[in-house]
Design a protein that fits this description.
The complex is a heterodimer of chains A (253) and B (353). With 253 residues, chain A is of the alpha/beta class. In chain A, 37% of the residues lie in helices and 17% in strands. In chain A, strand 5, helix 8 and strand 6 form a beta-alpha-beta unit. The chains are: A alpha/beta (253), B alpha/beta (353).
Chain lengths: 253, 353
Amino acid sequence: MTEKIAFERPKPLADRATHYCPGCSHGIVHRLVAETLQDMDLVENTIAVSAIGCSVFLYNYIMVDTVEAPHGRAPAVATGVKRARPDRFVFTYQGDGDLASIGMAEIMHCANRGERVSVVFVNNTIYGMTGGQMAPTTLVGQKTTTCPSGRCRDSEGMPIRMAEIIASLGGTAYASRVAVDTIKHLNQAKKALRKAFEVQVNGLGFGFVEFLATCPTNWKMSSIDANKRIAEEMIPYFPLGDFKDVTTGKGVC
Amino acid sequence: MSTGKKLFIKGNEAVAYGALAAGCKCFFGYPITPQNDIPEFMSKAMPKAGGQFVQAESEVAAANMLLGAAACGVRAMTSSSSPGVSLKQEAISYMAGSELPGVIVNMNRGGPGLGDIGPSQGDYFQSVKGGGHGDYRTLVLAPGNCQEAYDLTMLAFDLAYKYTNPVLILGDAILGQMKEPVSVGEPIAVDEAEGGDWKLTGAKGRPYRILKSLHLEEGSLAEHNLKLAAKYESMRGEVRFESFETKDAELVVVAYGSIGRIVKTVVRKLRQEGLKVGLFRPITLYPYPSAALVELAQEGKRFLTVEHNMGQMIEDVRLSLCGLADSAFFGFPPGNMPTPEDFEQPVRQALGR
């Protein structure tokens, strides 16, 4: 019987042990990013901007030129990178605490200006690296270390739906929400990521993909239960799909 | 001093012309008085120079845009005034930690808090002692007139790349809003190889690069801090200062920037009366010209430090003179516009005349 390799590591993905917890979605999203960069032949033309949170170590896994941004500021740093090197492919990789809380101003204005950059947004409804505190995306009733009785809409407000907000801004060419819990969703996610990259490459505007992701450790769940939570609790509040798609025509200004 | 055409321009514009001449290709700004002439000028000049102007959503964002452009090895600048520069400190700390070159202009206004829109030297500490979190320094250049604002801005870009470090231009509302004739030149041709061994260009034909300030591996941050400390030490050679009538002076007045210039008028007046007074004007505030002050102290001179704040640079003067001499101090409070008359009496008093 001959062996056939059916599944290879994308070239830009480093061959090393992961620091991410078992069942964490970051590894999957990293792989999708690496695959898409490779598929679109962008690896040697890319400047990535890493953010603060578990994914600050993006540069340990995806082997492209990378600059580390302060917490929440990746879209501003990416703006500086893209303005300095308009011919390079520029993406940020940010978690929900980074992007939707401390970095809300930067992401809104970067999208609104229509910066030709792409944003990979990983939403796991919690602050992972700091130990499971409430995020702006934490679901109502979800218990975290800073809302131990569960998030209350009257005192902490409702979870923020970023993909819809970003879609409402003039500079956005593509805004989508995907999940990485099933094979079907993975395929949809990869297509969405490619579109978010293509709108930049084609000069159409700002590209944004929100990934619904797991954090088994801070959710205090098994990997399997965490994966189930995406469909059972997250998707009902954070619907999947494209919220803006300007892939035909002249794009946004 | 540059040769070329002579323009009658504000200090703010001189800074902008200096940046253009130095090959600045990206400018990131946000409106705040009294530095608005700089972003206004750059919004027109950058596109003409084949560069980019972005009015950022905040000073926080503007400084982080600077960080991004700097990571690409492109000459870039941001400008603001005191409250705005406080907001930039986050990115400045990250730039220092990641060893990225960039120029930050502060046209100092009165504080603390919102203060006023008039001149002040209240940001001395923030400028020369790091300013943001962590153990770092930035080179600080303090122009005293519009020509110097132009020349030192040009120099700032070279120093930023020489040391891969942020460089601050510390002016004030007087300098920014004052008009003088300034000689300006054509933009220099920036060497395309500049930053070639670290800048991000996409990892084509070479290993990929990471520009970061995070050091979690055991021993890594300590090693990094030692490396940075050695770099800051190596900046000593950049010391610049002006000594005016200090040779036979009994009293040396130490003052920087616009205040140094106003004190110069006082020195000239008192010299006409035969009073032996001189001016020592630090031009680099970091590195501080301590050795030159020590030499003056060794000649037996007495000192008076004059500032447009309640006493900040005086600490560096005293540290420099430590054990050799002391300095008297006169602080003119931010909130008022100083004139030579305001300083004349304190100088006479220090002279004992």
